[in-house]
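> example.struct
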């Protein structure tokens, strides 16, 4: 089913709106065709500038070296306008300065595939010291979202679960760091199956890539079956297992996550959302399929972070799934091709053009029946 609405526009928030960003910065070393490059990476590096550009004040909870911090400040000065510089572009209260950085080495092979190794790990970001006072809503400060984006186990699931109990701010989880492990024979980073129901039930939205979908699943599911899964299949499996574990004592309306997002690169993205129909004892699932905007890929790094920031902003200002998905995919399309457009004076107009093109092509379906969980 296709749905069209009036032309969509981007609305900036004010700088009293805070988004908390959890996850470590990284140094990423790339080896390709006898050349070596080193760049600053990690979710905060991509998420923070975009959040500022959309009118938020990011609060970064991360481990960072002095060299990374200097590089990050240079990037922020490069991206942020004079007007935006008048306001502190990000909060530094929760930065943990360290001498050890998380370093990934990426080697591209002839097939175009990338093999990654973890050379060092900055370590744990403690969440236990955070209390309700850190997330208190005031007239001068509104907390919009919490983004949880570990790169390699620097955030502990039990601490994230505890954090979720201290606040009602929406939690967005990108579990990429939990879906990796080190192969002891090759020292390479490989996929790792991860299925933590208590963690899933502590967040509102989970975003994964199509490749990561092979790892976010119970250990009993075969790879052949996984190839037929979509966002709603994973969503139903999580709620079904949660109901089973709790012997059906918890009403499904009280179970989380409320949304599962699967990004699919050039094929766009899927979003599964639970619906509660009055009088129904079982959930139904609405599946949104959004195309990507056709563009030449120069560098896919940061696309997932741009998508997530776009979705959070779209959902915050509109509470409309189609608009949020369209904005998310539009921002991701620029991140992989022309990231400078996202920060240019004409950026909003260009994003809105792609956003409307994508929005008109979103398909809504009800792929799963209401059979008992």
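> example.seq
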């Amino acid at each position: 089913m296709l749905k069209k609405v009036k032309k969509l526009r981007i609305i900036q928030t004010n700088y009293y709106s805070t988004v908390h960003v959890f996850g470590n910065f990284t140094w990423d070393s790339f080896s390709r065709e006898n050349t070596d490059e080193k760049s600053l990476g990690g979710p905060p590096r991509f998420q923070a500038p975009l959040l500022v550009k959309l009118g938020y004040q990011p609060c970064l909870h991360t481990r960072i070296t002095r060299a990374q911090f200097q590089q990050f400040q240079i990037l922020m000065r490069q991206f942020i306008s004079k007007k935006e510089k008048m306001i502190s572009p990000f909060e530094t209260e929760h930065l943990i300065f360290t001498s050890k950085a998380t370093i990934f080495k990426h080697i591209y092979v002839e097939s175009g595939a990338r093999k990654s190794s973890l050379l060092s790990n900055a370590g744990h970001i403690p969440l236990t010291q955070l209390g309700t006072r850190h997330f208190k809503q005031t007239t001068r400060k509104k907390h919009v979202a919490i983004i949880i984006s570990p790169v390699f186990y620097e955030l502990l699931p039990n601490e994230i679960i505890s954090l979720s109990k201290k606040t009602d701010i929406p939690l967005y989880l990108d579990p990429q760091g939990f879906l990796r492990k080190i192969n002891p024979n090759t020292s390479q980073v490989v996929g790792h199956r991860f299925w933590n129901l208590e963690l899933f039930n502590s967040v509102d939205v989970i975003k994964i890539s199509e490749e990561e979908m092979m790892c976010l699943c119970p250990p009993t599911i075969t790879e052949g079956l996984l190839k037929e899964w979509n966002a709603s299949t994973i969503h139903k499996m999580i709620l079904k297992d949660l109901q089973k574990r709790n012997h059906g004592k918890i009403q499904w309306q009280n179970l989380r996550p409320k949304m599962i997002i699967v990004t699919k690169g050039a094929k766009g993205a899927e979003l599964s959302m639970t619906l509660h129909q009055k009088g129904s004892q079982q959930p139904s699932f609405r599946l949104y399929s959004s195309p990507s905007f056709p563009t030449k890929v120069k560098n896919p790094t940061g696309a997932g972070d741009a998508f997530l920031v776009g979705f959070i902003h779209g959902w915050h200002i509109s509470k409309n799934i189609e608009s949020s998905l369209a904005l998310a995919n539009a921002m991701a399309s620029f991140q992989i091709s022309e990231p400078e457009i996202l920060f240019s004076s004409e950026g909003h107009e260009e994003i809105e053009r792609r956003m409307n093109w994508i929005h008109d092509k979103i398909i809504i379906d009800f792929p799963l029946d209401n059979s008992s969980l």
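> remarks
The chain has ten helices and 16 strands.
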